[in-house]
Amino acid sequence: MQKSVSIAAMTLSLSIAGAAVAEQLSPEEQILTRQAGYSFISWNMGKIKANLEGEFSQQQVAAAANAIAGIASSGMGALYGPGTDKDIGDVKTRVKPALFTERQQVGELAGNFVQAANMMAEAASMAESAQDVKGAFMDLGESCKACHKEFRKD
Amino acid sequence: MQKSVSIAAMTLSLSIAGAAVAEQLSPEEQILTRQAGYSFISWNMGKIKANLEGEFSQQQVAAAANAIAGIASSGMGALYGPGTDKDIGDVKTRVKPALFTERQQVGELAGNFVQAANMMAEAASMAESAQDVKGAFMDLGESCKACHKEFRKD
Lengths: 154, 154
What we know:
Two copies of one chain form a homodimer.
Chain A: H1 7-22, H2 27-53, H3 58-72, H4 103-126, H5 131-151
Helix pairs in contact in A: 1-4, 2-3, 2-5, 3-4, 4-5
């Protein structure tokens, strides 16, 4: 797991490193790929939630948290290239145009998300009970919501 | 990173642990969620390929490999529940019916995939050049293809 001190730097450098690669994906593909990432995250968030509300399997929570952290840390900023700020035919997006102009705020929220995802994975790797991950899971959920609130249409 | 010796056991137990959770997703959602996982894997495979053919960024390759390993190890077997063996309205699937009957072969191929994904992530975490991950990346690609050949329609 990345140490949290290096996450901001990592996020930034990944965004830059990812820029060249994003050019290989069409705007439609970028939208679909970022939605795929969030869908897969959502499934894994649901699994963790079910574990916290029901029987706790450390193995399942850790696996779900690793998937989320891996996706969050993969440089998704590269999937918000030019032309991906609005629907393209049947490919719909709920992103608000402000995401493409409020770079500093977006960078902070994205950095918080990556950090929260990595802290959740770290907590899950050592968890003996649901109690050991509840705080990290709540922080992770808040980091998702913070970005949705600002930059995702209802 | 999981040690490879424990991966087969982990895969099996995750499949079992995931069964209860899958019941919360409709068959349509299961198909879409597994496709989301593979789409996100595909994007990250493409990034690694671009790094091996062009300029090599260890940071980007490691991040992509971690995303792939996280998704692969998340218990995707739970997304192949009853009713997900064929198209459901607009939700199309390329899975062959044999995937739902050839359990032993599927388990072996899935285990190989999870193991190859984790070995790629391990190799990427220490790589100093493209040469250091080429073998692991080839093995990972082969593990994808082995399952596509048997259980995915063209």
